[in-house]
What does this fold into?
Amino acid sequence: MAAVVACAALTGGLLQAAPVVAAPKPNHGRSHTTPPTPPSRVADPGSKLGKGWNTSADRAVTLAADSDGVHVLVADSAKAYEWRNATVLSEPGMPADSWIGNQCVIDHEHAAVVYAPRTFTNKPDLMQGGAFAAIVNLDSGKVIKLPFTASLAYFDPTCNPDTRTAAFTGYRDMNDPRNTKTRIVSVNTAGKTTFGTVTGGEITSAVPVKDGTIAARGRHLVHINRSGKVKDLATTDSVPFDIRPATHGKIAFVDRSDNTTAHAKLFTGHGRPDAIAAGKLGDLGLHQGAAGQVFLTGHPTGTLHTKGTGVTRINAPSETDISTLGRLAVNPVLTPGVRAGLERIKNSGKGFTKAEPSSQERSAQAPATVTSDTPMTVTSTATTTGEKITQSVQETMNPTGKGIFSPALTAGGSNDKQTQRIRTAAGVSNTPVDTDRWCSVSRNDVNAQALQPTPNQVEWAVDMAVRGKLRASSIRQGGYRSQTGMSTIDPQGLFPLPKLTGGGRIPVNVLLGIMAQESNLWQAESGSIPGQMGSPLAAVDGYYGHKAVEGDPDAFWQINWDKSDCGYGVGQVTDGMRLAGHEKDHETSLSPALQKAVAVDYATNIAASMKILADKWNEVHTDGQKVTVNNDNPAMVENWFTAAWNYNLGFNPPSDASKHDGHWGLGWYNNPANPIYKKSWGHPFMDTSVDPGANHDAAHPQDWPYEEKVMGWAAWSIDTGFSYGTSGRQDWLGESGFSSAGFQPAWWTTPGQRSLVSPPLDTFCNSNNNCNPDTPPDCPNEACYAKYWWNQPNVAWKVNCDTSCGHENIKYQTEIPEPGRGYRLKDGTPVCSGVPDGSHVVASIPKGTETWSDCGQATSSGSFQFTFYPGTEGRYEAKADLHQVGGGYGGHYWYTHTRSPGHLGGPNGYMTINGTWTLGQNLNWARVLVHLPDTGAQTRQATYVVHGSDSSSPRRRVLQRAGGWVPLGVFHFTGTPQVELSNNTADGTADEDIAWGAVAFQPLAAKPKNFVVAMGDSYSSGEGASAAGGTDFFPETDHYDKLNDKLIDKCHRSKLAWSRQAALPGSSKPIGDMADSLDPQMDYHFVACSGARHYDILNHDQMSEGAQVDTGYLDGNTTLVTLSVGGNDARFTDVFMQCVLKAGLDLCQDTSIDNKDPDDGHTLPGNTGPLKDWAPKWLHDQIRPRIAKTLNVIHGKAPNAKIVLMGYPRLLSAGGQCIPGIGTEEAPWLNQVADTLDEEMKGAVSDANQSGAKAVFADPRNEFEGKTVCGDPEDVNGIVKTGLSKADNFGLTEVGMATFHPKIAGARLYTNVLEQTLK
It folds into this structure.
């Protein structure tokens, strides 16, 4: 069983940008200080893995997660445990700061998985039964999503390889004793239900068997048959867990005898279970293996009695994933961002163990700068040898797990007549807001934008608020706060400092710990960087009302506005936040102005949050219903344990006791003794003092109750991913003072006392509530849980709390004005100037809309409108995946994720979003440009459609990573100028962002003289024509991503490419300079790509940029096309490398290479035979006609253009003797092949011209004579191993992509040839 979490703010904030929605990804390049990547296969497997590794059928499966979803990782012993990503699981369009999940292995080919957004751990209903379920084929990556939801408890799901089934458990109303139910469903590898039952009470650790399930109910091991009848099998010392079917019908399990000792036992079918091992609680575990095997892990003490039991002791930690045959123990996997965040806060609680806190040193790579090339690593132990292993993961995922909805999202129907009417009557929607919501402030309302505060601003506001000093005089008035309509915002005038029953005040670290868990300290959605504006943070389940539906337990994911709790902002304030007329029972809506203030202003939100927390404290301090801890001094952190419990779950007051057989108090669900939290027993959350491996707690936050996580954050702080000074200035990685800890944690007098921030198990489970911590609830019926509610006036686990409990640690000791708004952002600063000269700009928001940035009110020369399409339920699901950010040109843009028709996109798809800019005036000739923000835009297939012109090619494809103003081209407008952009892309799997920013229409006095398109392969793109590091490449074409090959772009278009250096006849300025300055006589577009073959130009999607002829820049206006193609089709690199590799063995011209299909590059049977015979025939019969075809296709799209086909130089000068492996006979032959290719290219031009093309051949051989590889000067690179670009070849045996390509001086030689050809 594995439990994982995503790389953003897993349990409340280990990473930046993520309370509710996935943040747009900054366009960072590859870091050259990235540590070496661990091998993907185990090195020296013979010694590290032990005998038989290569013949073993052992398979390891584990999970890792990030904001994209839960990744299912697989490794096989026979392949030296080379890790690969089988698939990634998430729900399309569902806002999530991060994903978490659990898994078990059904058989060698299949795993069962539950997965959900991290925030589900804050919501009891969703934690108990709202997670999604799936079966994953570990070989193919195929995913079967199941039509029901399940819990996130550590035991869910549980598999039985013998029956090849998995059991999923779900709970309903665990805190309502009269309605508590457990649902158990077993499925097979095809996802077909084999067993299902609903029973009263709390059933845990259910595992499927042939005739039903074996499970735990209280201190009993029970069997539930197919009719749902429960039979006690054995009485245990405490609640059984880690229940594992063993051989011959035996059942192994673990229980505990006290708060510190665990026992592994075996039930043989009758009598009392036999003890087979003992150990420390939390350090003894049982894991299911293949073929009835059960593995005992951890550190058992005393004598083992496992012989003949079917239980095998292996040397592995208890909280690891064990491979199917027990040969590998895999540690929880932390994604790079989480690992960096943990590194950042590892010392945040240290040093605060004195009478006074001391300053902290922080050093680690900020998650905000953890680029996607940082490797995901897996650490494990080979159990046969004890070797510790570190490996990287091959990102070869099948995306099907995230491109389709879970059937649970649409399972079940609704009897609501309004819903039925909407299904049949809904048409398209053009507004991004939710007009039918019940919550007061809509998402995506441009007139209700929240400032994303810096961590300093949040901590300052809390520090001021707890002392009643968060007043109008201390905060900046006006600005974005003006949205409320209030002339003055006075946070603690609106929400006065609450009084605590008994006196005292709230410790800052407790309130900050709750906010860390609730929101990661964010007021706006996570796409907004501190300092930017964005939609107010509204939790997905609370805003859309995702709750259990009466009579329809599967229908969690219908929108139920009547169940919306409407939590907003940093404190997720709910009280009074519904629209008037839609209030909850006993609720009064706040005024609209006050509701907006809570939603958009972090300071007001914090003032309101304090009132809620104080109310929770006062509720458990009211006479007749007091529930307190320790000495009840409110100044001490631990004394807020029951108030935090109440904050999350609520309180069952004595006034309702008559409904529950006289019982009242804090509900059972969050009780630390609840067996669903078994994995947390024995160590506090994130406390490495007790557990050196506690950093892995971040991988499974669902294993701790809410209040223990709050205590953990109060003790440790969180990592926000960003660093800001009190002035608001953003610090960048490597600068002095960089620190991204969210706040100063509380301090304790000793580390040991800090480790006791969470209580022993028997603190809230003892005779006072009829609970035995060794035998928690044994509930056969729905009403019994009430007797376990905690309602004692006081309980203490710290006798001298004034010294042993956590002390408040206030950063802002003295009253100061509000810290500055975030500025100097490395990414995300709004662009307020620099519009192309004379342009009419159409913004993404209406004219006059306040952006609340330095850009002021939006200026717009037209309008912008969205189109959303209804789903089968008549709702607009795509709106949930739309986000606004205060960045880009003018201070506002929108973003969502790209989707293909197979991933809910396509025409009229219900996750499809279309946006249209319309200019409010007519034009004649004009250049159209789009502005791309520096975050929230990564797709390379953004296809803009320009309407109202006479162009034969109105669809223009753009790499949104480019950033800034990017031209779509010059158009002759004959109708209303419009530009349309959809998130529907051919490669859209919801992995990349697509943005709608501003569009500029730049009128021109006349049609430009020159319309130039540069196409072709690496010789056209300018591979090699750059300073070291690829600094002369356009960054979007030199983009590296170590985690996902799909996101890499190696097209390597150089600013010094020969098509840009050349000056056209009659012009003194190079084409590139004219293009960059938007010269009215030039329309230039550069689509060449390194490595291109003719089919990449015609019909193949290279580097996710699409085929070059489909980028849209060829039309009837095009006057010149520059092109080089044929070198890669000729397989010249293959031939050249053959000569090097066969050095000293044979003449390379006498050897052969594999056959390839000339139309797609796929390997064909056989080989070429001697290269000296094959090459001329290949070039004439295969390559020449395909080059001619390419020229004809280009001519068909640009019938008025001259096409210049540029040839290739002879690569070797001076006999090529400077290249190892090239002999005196091989160099002349290789140059002869180049000559043959040039002659065939010249022939292809002639062939194409006979069909009407207007092509010429430009021959560079004379210009390069004596200046190629080994020449003097050497203007063509030899073998390159240093100065590599960001996206290059990095293998030890590989050479850089610049190898055998013209240098900058060589590109100038090509420029000379082009200029001579055009004269």
Remarks:
- The first helix runs from residue 45 to 48.
- The domain at 2-335+376-402 is CATH 2.130.10 (Methylamine Dehydrogenase; Chain H).
- The CA atoms of residues 952 and 1115 lie 6 Å apart.
- The longest strand covers residues 964-982.
